[in-house]
Structures are given as C-alpha cells and as structure tokens.
Amino acid sequence: MMSRTVGTLFEAQRRLVAERRLSFDPAARKDALEALRRAILAHEGQIIAALAQDFGKPEAEVLLTEILPVLSEIRLAQRRVKAWARDRRVGVTLTTMGTSARIRREPRGVCLIIAPWNYPLNLALGPLVSCLAAGNSAIVKPSELTPATSAVIAKIIASAFDPDLVAVAEGGVETSTELLALPFDHIFFTGSPEVGRIVMTAAAKHLSTVTLELGGKSPVIVGPGADLAKAAEWITFGKLTNAGQTCIAPDHLFVHEDIRDAFLPLLRARIARVIDKGPMAGIISPRHAGRLETLLREAEAAGAKVTRERTGGEGSFAPALVSAITPEMRLDQEEIFGPILPVIPFRDLSAVLARINARPKPLALYVFEKDQAFIDQAIGSTSSGGVGVNLTVLHYSHEGLPFGGVNHSGHGAAHGEWGFLAFSHQRAILQNRFSPLGMIFPPWTGGKLRLIRLAKRLIGGGVSGKS
C-alpha cells in the first residue's frame, strides 16, 4: 500500500484529469505507453522470479501468458491510438439536415482496475494499456494472493508514472472495499462472478460504469468428425496452462460416443507427455488445492470414476479425468479452476446444447469438428462470450476480437480497440450549420402541421391513420 491514502490518490488524479483534458493527447498517451513498455522490460527478471515465488509459474508460461500479451497490447495501442481517438463523422438524417454530426471518443476520467491472482501481471497491466490509450488516469489494485508479483507491479508503475496519473494500491479486502467506496468514473474488474456482483453493487451507488471480466464453466464439444490428435493437444494446452487456473480453460468435455474410446487414450497420453517434459504451475494456495481435492472426493463418493495422472512435480496438482458425473455433484455445478476435466459422453448434439443453455452463459465455448454444419449448429444454438473452433484459449490473444463475457460471465469487452472503447465515453456532438427546422417551431399553424405530416410520410410511409 502506498503512503498516500487511496482517497488522497483519487482526489489528486481527479484534479489532474480536469487539468489535462486537452493536453493528454494521443502523442502524450503514446509516451505513457512507451514508459510502461520500458518498465516492464527493465523488470522482466523480477517478474519471472515473482511469479515463480507466488505459485511456481515456469518461465516459458510467464513469458507467453503474462509478459507477451501486455507488450503486444502496448505495441498495437501505440500504432493505433491516434486513429482510435479521432472523431467519427456521422451522416445527417432527414430531420437533422443542415447540421454536422460527429462522435468524440473522450476519456472517462479516473478509473479503477482490480486484477485477479491467476494472471496477476497480465490482467493488471493489460487493462491499464487500454485505460492509458483512452486518456484516463488509473489506480491499480493487484491481488493480495500474489504478493511478490503485486510488489513488482508497484515497482513497475512507480518507475514509469507519476502517481497522479497511475498509482498502485496494494492490500487485501479492506483496500478493495475502501477503493470501491470512491466515485470512480469507470471500474474494470477481473475475477469471479461472486465478487463481480459485489463490485457491480458498489459501482451502482455512484452510477459508475463497469467492465466485468468474469468466468464460468466453459464447455468443450468433441464431435464425431473431429481430428482427435489435434483435439487432444489443444484441450490439454487449454486445461494445463497455469494448472487450469484460467477463466477460459476447458471446464468440462462432451465427447461423442462414436469416438470416445479412441479419443481418451490420446488425451491421457498428451497430458502425460506435458507433465513428463516440463514443470507445471502450482495451485495458488493450499486452500485452493484443498477445494479441488474435496471436489474429487465428493464426486468419487457419489459414484464418479476419477483417473489421476502422475503429478508434475513438487507443489503441483496431479491432473484428473472424471467420468460418470451427475448434475448433483459440485464438480458439475461450480467452475473448476484447476486441472480436473470431467468427460461426458453424448449421442445427440441437441441434448448437449440444451444442457449448455440450461446453465449461465459461459465465457467460452469450444467445438472440435470438421463438419461445418455441426459447428454452425453448436454456435448458432448457444450463447457465450467467445467461441474457439478446433482450438482453445487462443481467441484471447487476437487483438482484433473483443474479449469478454455475457451476463453471468461478464459485461463489456477488452483488448485492442475494444478495450479502448471500454475506457472511453462516446460523446455525441451535433452542430447547426443551416438547419431549416425553425420553419416548424411552435406555434403550430396549419401550414407547419402539413410540413410535419409530409416529413412523417417521407420517413414512415404507409397509409395515414387519420380518417
């Protein structure tokens, strides 16, 4: 936690926002992004060491899932921020002839970014890139569950920015509660749906806008025509990256009965190969590991069959495939958030889609199949934040796609221009040039009424309802 209170930081940032509304232009924003880029690279070794300390993330995973995504966001924003910030011209309508219309993308103001523990650097600094590109100031609240990474984030931001522009507020629930009591112009939260409700409730007190990146039980469908080897590779990648502690990780697996016996040995072999060839990230805490073990024990006691793969090393959690699960099991109800993968055989795709639609809308849906009609039916009959076809989790990395959930899995979108828009207000500006509308201003004479009726016919057409 910084020596200045969060209230003092907030007020200082609010004053600066008002002062620099015109001066923090795209060029200044690019400079701020460059300062962030340089600070990340200067602290790369500390980032890698901190994430290894917090929960055993291998260096390759840190580079691939924490550092590279943020650097990529910075690179894109630096190249595109001028175009993103430019006013958008809008054509006139019949009733607004003689005017000019434009949309100005303006900063929202002082923003709060609350980051989770599972990707603590990426999900703190990635939104910050969008926030700065849009011209805002920010207070960043890292997760207290990754204290080493939180400390490095504080160093990175302190080395790159004046606290009146960007500051870090470290601490636990008390700090989050204190921050959420302030009237931020926008709040960007990444975390669980349960905490998302708390954030949304707090934001409502000030009518602050929010972006909520949440989660849910992202299903995978493996159809009868899927490339089974590729499906095994992609599902393993999505499930074991960060030990399954990913909001868009495959949560459960629907496998067509015709290919189940051929597919499962491939999946198990791929999991074993990944474990044998390199280290896995650990589970964030003994409490979280205990929860996963409890889910397995409860499912097994209720009749599920659990197949554990050998562990990936000290501190890691042995991946498990689970069959014969039932809707009453917590494993089938809660987001798993770990390297446990229930496998559910199916014959009729419609039954699978009905089961998916009976639950809250997931953050991601994955479909493995060669038949386009099968793929189209799965996508067209469901709703989810995003879709991966013959791949998992990679859609997160496409900066031209919006990343976000729907309802239970999130509100709003992030990444690239979509992230820029999340932190921007779309201000409508209509300027009078030579509008003839004054011809029909009150008092309402018969001639003016005829002009209004003429306009109605031109716009609405059809037969007049006046008898």
Quick recap of the structure?
With 467 residues, this protein is of the alpha/beta class. It is built from 15 helices and 16 strands.
Topology:
Elements: H1 6-19, H2 26-42, H3 44-55, H4 59-85, E1 88-90, E2 99-107, E3 110-114, H5 122-133, E4 137-141, H6 147-160, E5 166-168, H7 173-180, E6 186-190, H8 193-206, E7 209-213, E8 219-222, H9 228-240, E9 252-256, H10 257-277, H11 286-301, E10 305-308, E11 320-323, E12 340-346, H12 349-357, E13 364-368, H13 372-380, E14 386-389, E15 410-411, H14 416-422, E16 424-432, H15 446-460
Parallel strand pairs: 3-4, 3-6, 4-5, 6-7, 8-9, 8-13, 9-12, 11-12, 13-14
Antiparallel strand pairs: 1-2, 2-16, 7-15, 10-11
CATH level-two architecture of the largest domain: 3-Layer(aba) Sandwich
**In CATH's first tier, which class of the largest domain applies?**
Alpha Beta
Full CATH superfamily name of the largest domain: Aldehyde Dehydrogenase, Chain A, domain 1
Count of discrete structural domains: 2
Radius of gyration: 26 Å
Q: Span from first to last CA?
A: 73 Å
Compute the number of helices: 15
Pick out the low-confidence regions.
Answer: none
Shape estimate: globular
* Helix percent band: 40-55%
GO biological process, one term: aldehyde metabolic process
Active site: 213, 247
Keywords: NAD, Oxidoreductase
InterPro entries: Ald_DH/histidinol_DH (IPR016161), Ald_DH_C (IPR016163), Ald_DH_CS_CYS (IPR016160), Ald_DH_CS_GLU (IPR029510), Ald_DH_N (IPR016162), Aldehyde_DH_dom (IPR015590), Aldehyde_DH_NAD(P) (IPR012394)
